[in-house]
Amino acid sequence: MITFLDRIALSSASANIMDDLHISISQWGWILGMFTIAYAAFEIPTGWLGDKFGGKKILIRVVLWWSLFTILTGFANGFLMLLLVRFLFGMGEAGPYEVDALMAAGLILFILTLFVNAIADVLVSKFGGKGK
Question: 132 in a domain, yes or no?
Answer without folding.
Answer: no
